[in-house]
Design brief:
- The protein has 116 residues and is an alpha+beta fold.
- The chain has a domain of 81 residues: Lipocalin.
- Helix content is 20%, strand content 39%.
- A hairpin with a 4-residue loop joins β2 and β3.
- The termini are far apart.
Length: 116
């Protein structure tokens, strides 16, 4: 009887340890929040784009609005046209944009603009 009690106690402790912390909420970052910030596309002249939390963007040569819809990035260039991109976050600091014609641009967040 005492062996069964010890076995049940050990199993109960193992189960408690296994599930310990399962009720903690995991903070997830939305796709919109991941876009916000300064992104550098390299090249010459350097392609820098800044996505603002209010849905606007600016670059060295233009500005406009941006939205995410149906897993696509819509960049509306002020008073002109809309670019539509598939997007993929390689990691927290690298963003790959692809247009329907296959044009692909990789953007990186410069380290001085990365939120720690």
């Amino acid at each position: 009887m005492q062996k069964q009690l010890i076995t049940i106690t050990i199993i109960s402790m193992f189960i408690c340890l296994l599930f310990c912390g399962c009720n903690e909420e995991v903070e997830s970052v939305s796709a919109d929040e991941r876009f916000v910030g300064v992104w550098n596309g390299g090249g010459y002249p350097e392609r820098i784009i800044i996505f603002y939390p209010d849905g606007t963007w600016s670059s060295t040569s233009s500005d406009g609005t941006w939205t995410l819809r149906d897993d696509k990035l819509f960049i509306n260039k002020k008073n002109e046209y809309t670019y539509i991109f598939d997007y993929y976050f390689v990691n927290e600091y690298t963003l790959r944009l692809t247009q329907s014609n296959g044009l692909e641009i990789t953007y990186r967040k410069p380290s001085e603009h990365v939120n720690n």
